[in-house]
Amino acid sequence: MAPVLTSPLVSTQWLADHLGADELVVLDASVHTAGTGLETTWQTARDSYEQRGHVPGARYADLVEAFSTPDADVPFTRPGAERFESAAGDLGVTNTSTVVVYDDSVGEWSARLWWIFRSFGFDSVAVLDGGFTKWRDEGRPVRVGALRSAPKPASTPASHVGDATATTTFLAGEERPLWADHERVSRAVSGEQPASLVLAAPESALGAEHPPIVPGSTPITVDTLVDPTTNAYLRRPALEQAFASVLDADEIVTYCGVGSAACVDALALTVLGHEKVRVYDGSLLDWWRREPEALAS
What angle do CA 226, 262, 233 make, to 5 degrees? Predict the structure, then answer.
């Protein structure tokens, strides 16, 4: 029986207590970056996962390719249902799994994968609070090297593909309205469809001379939501204080550079119980390419 989750976050002690449990799937979603702003580049952290180590039994989830749409106009555009099913199934995830995700940064990549799972109706997923940094610094076990291929779970009948004879190891649910696009953000800016716009990216990540951010935004950056030593999320009172200016909004749209740090804010808001949060997929890279005057300024 899979472990039961009671929060979007699990502690390192919770994971240590449940490591090796039936139907628990642990995923390392780390991504490594270089540069800032429009000069940022991203690369898979698989080599680091294998050479520097990972939580024992964790499998590497590739957000750069497998859990994105690589040929999209903006990096890290969320995958479609079939691509998501394939990527999750290849890692041994089934519809009865409990999934715990972590990364080796401040949690933006694990939160991104958590948000993707939830957007396809999969709720038995949580982020490891503090990620690999906290796990390693507490002296917990670390495994070096690549793992064997994920075990192939028993197949279940296909659903939305419309082929009654097809089978798949993992089925995505109907996509939930957890994402915002350029049009939704534009309506928030104009006031046609109000929403609080929250910028999660620290100024240092946007580059020294970046184009203008989305008008009317409130900066609530990821570095103000986590403990700088452990990378663990701040406790509820501190999070409430950080989001005090937007918590009463009917809808909140979070964004950053490409839609990763935005998911940290979205997770924190979910912890606080806000029920209408959206992440702007593509975030500023999408906004800037669709707003020529922003790039010209």
Answer: 15
Q: What is the pTM of this model?
A: 0.92
Dihedral angle over CA of 224, 228, 232, 235, nearest 10: -50
- Contact (CB, 8 A) for 247 and 268: no
Question: Is residue 199 within 8 Å of residue 256, measured between CB atoms?
Answer: yes
- Let me know if residue 1 belongs to a domain: no
- For residue 153, give both structure tokens: 């779970």
Residue pair 32/42 in contact (Cβ under 8 Å)? The answer is yes
Do the Cβ atoms of 208 and 195 come closer than 8 Å?
no
Does residue 3 sit within a domain? no
Q: What is the pLDDT of residues 122-153, one digit of tens each?
A: 999 999 999 999 999 999 999 999 876 555 54
Q: Which of 105, 106, 97 is nearest to 57 (CA)?
A: 97
User: 219 and 271 share a domain?
Assistant: yes
Distances (CA, A) of 78 to 73, 143, 256, 282: 11, 30, 15, 9
Which residues are registered as beta bridge partners of 199?
Answer: 219, 255
